[in-house]
Design goal:
The protein has helices at 9-48, 54-90, 93-99, 104-142, 241-248, 256-268, 274-296, 310-336, 342-365, and strands at residues 155-162, 165-173, 180-189, 195-206, 211-214, 217-220, 225-228, 233-235. By secondary structure, it is α+β, with helices and mostly antiparallel strands. It is a multi-pass membrane protein.
């Protein structure tokens, strides 16, 4: 009974191959165009660092392209669906298949099969390639496209809140109690949010609580005078290492297993993890969105091509597909703010548009 869902072997291979070729072509076109536009905006920043040249531009492209593939693969599946079905419809191949007794779902079955393979490949690609490229690219951007730090624990331009006060550092290194800040600036603010004192220092170590700042220079806004501290000065007593751990978590740069471990650690520390949980689920639901695209774009493949409505049906298919991406991003944003539970934020758009696509297909073609 399951095999009856597909048309013949030859027809399944014919439609599936046509669909796969168009996915690759559309994806290559989108990625190359967007990569060129991205390089136009980033070339100046990359070459601004002394010694950078063509090799660094190629390195940036190699790190950026996996991110573009991840982001635009579902769009490519949607556009390939519309192009494939519109071509079949315009050549009366859909009419021939329906005259042979195939249902709309059977005609779509090869596309759905290819979409399942694409979803699986997308998930593996995101886990194995995109996360590593993202982590490397962000580390490179933090040092203004200079030499990438060999220590993965080193981060630049970090800040922590201590009530109204703000602690900033040019660089953070080490882990746990051995965490060290260099190039430190601490802003003491009053109740109105205005800066009362600015304290700078060359280095700060974790004092549990707070940070011991060395070579402290204290500038008072009221007196406009700068004085030197007699010894190490304790600043930001309200900051904890939990804040350091929280700011280390980058969902885009961590695999599914790594992100699960990070969420568990933050939960144990009593930190809010709703946003990260939503991103964890999105790592699964995101690649699966490729399976929805043949269903949402199916409206372009049916109806009489000679009636002049083929273009309108293609536009409707594109509108349904892009509406899914808009709703998905909105749901994830609502989940980040606590408006939706993380599981609902990640999966409700998928289920909603699965029902919408099935409804449109059944009421118009079945």
């Amino acid at each position: 009974m399951l095999l009856n869902f597909f048309p013949s072997r030859q027809l399944t291979f014919y439609i599936g191959k046509m669909f796969a070729v168009r996915i690759i072509a559309v994806l290559a076109m989108l990625v190359l165009v967007l990569m060129m536009l991205d390089l136009l905006s980033r070339t100046g920043d990359i070459l601004a660092y002394a010694g950078n040249g063509e090799a660094e531009l190629l390195q940036y492209a190699s790190l950026r392209m996996p991110q573009l593939v991840k982001r635009f693969l579902p769009y490519s599946v949607l556009l390939a669906t519309i192009i494939t079905l519109a071509t079949l419809n315009q050549n009366s191949e859909v009419t021939a298949m329906k005259a042979a007794g195939l249902s709309a779902h059977q005609i779509l079955a090869p596309l759905l099969l290819v979409a399942v393979v694409v979803a699986g490949a997308s998930f593996a690609f995101n886990e194995r390639v995109v996360t590593r490229a993202t982590a490397t690219l962000k580390a490179w951007e933090r040092v203004d496209y200079g030499p990438i730090p060999t220590d993965p624990d080193i981060r630049t331009n970090v800040y922590f809140n201590d009530g109204n006060d703000v602690l900033m550092a040019r660089e953070l290194s080490g882990q746990g109690a051995d965490t060290v800040l260099t190039g430190v600036t601490f802003y003491e603010r009053d109740d109105a949010g205005m800066i009362a004192r600015q304290i700078t220092g060359s280095r700060a170590t974790y004092a549990n609580p707070g940070w011991l700042l060395e070579d402290a220079q204290i500038f008072s806004v009221a007196t406009t005078q700068t004085v030197s501290a007699d010894g190490p000065l304790l600043v930001a007593p309200g900051t904890t290492l939990d804040q350091v751990a929280l700011r280390r978590v980058d969902a885009d740069a961590e695999t599914l297993a790594q992100l699960a471990d990070s969420i568990a650690a933050l939960k144990a520390a009593g930190r809010r993890t709703a946003e990260l949980e939503g991103r964890w689920w999105a790592k699964i639901s995101g690649p699966l969105s490729a399976i929805l695209m043949p269903l949402l774009g199916a409206v372009a493949g049916f109806g009489l091509a000679r009636s002049g409505n083929l273009f309108i049906r293609a536009v409707i298919g594109m509108a349904l597909g892009f509406a899914y991406f808009v709703v998905e991003n909105a749901a994830l944003a609502m989940g980040s703010f606590g408006g939706y539970p993380p599981l609902l934020a990640a999966w409700s758009p998928f289920v909603l548009f699965l029902l919408v696509g099935e409804t449109v297909l059944i009421r118009t073609e079945e």
